[in-house]
Amino acid sequence: MRPTNERTLGASRKMCTPCKPRTLIQPDDWHHHLRDGDALATTVPAAARQFQRAIIMPNLVPPVTTTQMAQEYKQRILDALHASGAPAGSFEPMMTMYLTDTTSPEEVKRAAESGDVKAFKLYPAGATTNSASGVTDLAKVTATLQAMAHHGMPLCVHGEVVDADTDVFDRERAFFQTKAAARLSNPTPDPHH
After folding, report:
1. 188, 142 in Cβ contact below 8 A?
2. d(CA 61, CA 58)
3. pTM greater than 0.70
4. What domains does the chain contain, in order, with CATH numbers?
């Protein structure tokens, strides 16, 4: 064991000096489930009291799979915000769309051009609540992922395997050991763009 000298001790003291306190006035939430229908009267004002912006998850029934559906959902959220008495502009729902095996590159383009959709969400089919329509095979969405990269559209991933042989508490960890995780982190570039 190496003896502690004054120089080492002095350096560690500097690193441990308390910082000035910081106050987060109104943070953002990067994963929020507002749900839909009557629930919005409760969930939207509750979110708006705590957050300035939130990434809104699209796993509703039916899932938010088109730009038009995302825009309609956003309007329902804003209507609930207004009905709660919150000031206009006090909360920004940042909409996501539910990626499916049939999401087209054209829909990605519409979403990107709309300005309302901020990202797509990938749910492995059957992995979580309302994920039955999720992606069954990444090969089916290769062109769509390439379109997302081309249009600068982020991908949010529910990283979980759906293998029945994997313990439910190990599914997230197991996802990061899969070829799917590697493929998502190192996508094949689109040769046409």
Report:
1. yes
2. 9
3. yes
4. 26-185 (3.20.20.140)
- pLDDT of 128 higher than 80: yes
Q: Quickly tell me which residue has 């590697």 as its tokens.
A: 182
Distance between CA atoms of residues 72 and 23, nearest Å? 35
Return the number of other C-beta atoms located less than 10 Å from residue 46's C-beta. 12
Tokens 């029934």 belong to which residue?
61
For residue 22, the cross-strand partners are none
Alpha carbons 71 and 116: distance in angstroms, whole number: 7
> Is the pLDDT higher at 124 or at 118?
118
**CB 126, CB 113: distance < 8 Å:** no
DSSP assignment letter at 101: T
- Report whether 108 contacts 144 (CB < 8 A): yes
Report how far residue 175's alpha carbon sits from residue 117's, in angstroms, rounded to the nearest whole number.
26
**DSSP assignments along 24-83, one per residue:** -SS-EEEEE---SGGGHHHHHHHHHHH-SEEEEP---SS---SHHHHHHHHHHHHHHHHH
Does the pLDDT of residue 42 top 60, yes or no?
yes
CA quadruple 95, 121, 44, 66: dihedral positive or negative? positive
* Out of 11-20, 28-37, 46-55, 126-135, least confident range: 11-20
**pLDDT for 141:** 95
pLDDT (tens digit, 9 = 90+) per residue, 79-106?
Answer: 999 999 999 899 999 999 999 999 999 9
Beta-carbon contacts of 81 under 8 Å, excluding residues fewer than 6 positions away, are 44, 45, 48, 88, 90, 91
